[in-house]
């Protein structure tokens, strides 16, 4: 019954979505003629709100069938199991193709409802265009769900137990990773709808930038968190000790992030200075295209990895069709209308705008490098050669663009809008330059790190200071919240960069086979294997090693495991981590190595945790900016209303 | 209209911006193309290596089936040696220092990233095995366990 309610809610949502689209289009067309608005167009906002609620109902139904493990629903039978712990039964609802697409659409519907309810800053015709564009996107994905990925399909007869969930995915990281990424993708789709409305109604000024900005920032914050969560999940769950593999699935989330980063910077130029109009519009289209490409890569099964649940060519073709319609439509509309947009304001090369344009162009360069690297193996395979692309390509080639961008980031925020000179900021420039040079010298003299880690560490040190320099000459109490946000985010980049460079340069790895009682030295620690025992969990059994860690002010026991799951049959390595303020100790238990010995793989990774702390700071900075901008816009609206009221009073007198 | 005393008309500035962005993108594309050609790891089956061996030291990916009875652990306890077979029964000796993946077993598919040594032994840096029942590395499609067993049995029958 629950499953049928869910399916009915989905169909109703699809109907409302079609209504919203028609109402939106009528609203855009009629208002142009004589000012009279078609009556149907008034339904666009309510349709969006109710549609969001219906999708929420559908998703709640899906959670319900997973929570009670209703094995007559084929999705539950394929992906869950009666013996699973409750939280993983819930997480299994979106740990599969159909469920995650329903989550995607639900978030999209809720975002559309929020826009319809709360966005009152733009005129009615513009909002109709936004809602029509939102409905057009949602309609495609609803069709995809209903016609080729129905999450509520019944199984007759019902299954007895359920097939279970890939144990790699039975992890708390999974509960948060996909929803945050989808939040990011969906936020970019809202930004895209605003851009489309801007093109249709020929409004591409600062107002457009101001209504877009919270969505772009929210999408970017969510993508940042999603990528960081995915990276940490891969780090401790796969047991390879690495935090970024340039896997196509990782790239699928990185590319929208790169585009969103460029977009949020150009949006702030448009909002503050009314410059970069066409460029911002184009980035809005690119950013959404990247989230479509990401969805396609992950959801179509074109890449085979733990993420590719769908190995079904029909679905791949469907998503490719949607991709072609949205990306092609977006760029087509851009090509038709971009020429008609009014010119933005000018600026000098040395100015805040100039630095931000540099940032945008370099980010686009990195985006191109990652996109080509991700698609190249697919293209090569279509031509009959099988290749894979890894860090030896991505690291140096993307660094060619990332390093200059980070160097400009050191000084860019200090520049004034419109026109500035380097001599005005000579003092901070000299301080940051000296810090950079000193760091490089020290690292060259006292370490044998590679070129990129040295550059990374030195830039991180300089940026950690430079990110706070915009405070110079300001009264602390009068610094706007959004500026705190941007400084904090830039500081987060420094922190994260320091973690990456330090892990790359200074990690110590030991691979040994030891008997019980034997010790090895790893970095500052002495590690002793005490014993290896069998243990059991709710739906797994494991061999558990007991490692005594001493030295460096530590005396503790770590318990890495090799786990064996029964439903489905599979084994995983559970790493054991010891987190210290200055890094992480990472232990993996391997196989029996004969003669009573056990394999151990041990790492000391100095400051590796900074990578994820930095990401958290970046996300926090984004949140501060959202609140800062929303508060400022609410205040200016209050003032405008107050002025209008006084004027009206005066007119009455 | 504001006549331009100081610098460029907006239209020209936009043009310059577009040209610069295009130049950087073209540069990125060319760098990428160069990087992709020089850094791509080509995929080899054992028979490809036998027919047309890659130069020693170049990073490649080797895929195939782990030959029955070939896995042994060397005396240091952390280096394993095994042989990988393809469709035609050529067997390439492989050494790997590390902890093998969970589903790395004889008669099952494996992909090894690494380099061919001068002595003809493939030195693997990473090993990928089948993740679970639903997942086979895409390079090993068409090399089903069933087909591999048949190939192996034939080749075993053929050799005395």
From TrEMBL, chain A:
The keyword NAD does not apply. The chain crosses the membrane at residues 6-28, 48-67, 101-118, 130-148, 182-202, 214-234, 254-272, 279-298, 318-336, 357-376, 396-415, 427-446, 452-469, 481-501, 610-630. Residues 94-300 form the Cytochrome c assembly protein domain. Pfam families: CcmF_C, Cytochrom_C_asm. GO terms for molecular function: lyase activity. Residues 320-627 form the Cytochrome c-type biogenesis protein CcmF C-terminal domain. It comes from the Bacteria. It is a multi-pass membrane protein. This is Heme lyase CcmF/NrfE family subunit. It comes from Alteriqipengyuania abyssalis.
TrEMBL record, chain B:
InterPro entries: CcmE (IPR004329), CcmE-like_sf (IPR036127), NA-bd_OB-fold (IPR012340). Keywords: Cell membrane, Cytochrome c-type biogenesis, Heme, Iron, Membrane, Metal-binding, Signal-anchor, Transmembrane, Transmembrane helix. It is found in: Cell membrane; Membrane. The chain crosses the membrane at residues 15-36. Residues 1-14 are cytoplasmic. Residues 36-160 are extracellular. This is Cytochrome c-type biogenesis protein CcmE. The gene is ccmE. It is a single-pass type II membrane protein. Belongs to the CcmE/CycJ family. Heme chaperone required for the biogenesis of c-type cytochromes. Transiently binds heme delivered by CcmC and transfers the heme to apo-cytochromes in a process facilitated by CcmF and CcmH. Heme binds at residues 131, 135. HAMAP family: CcmE (MF_01959). Pfam families: CcmE.
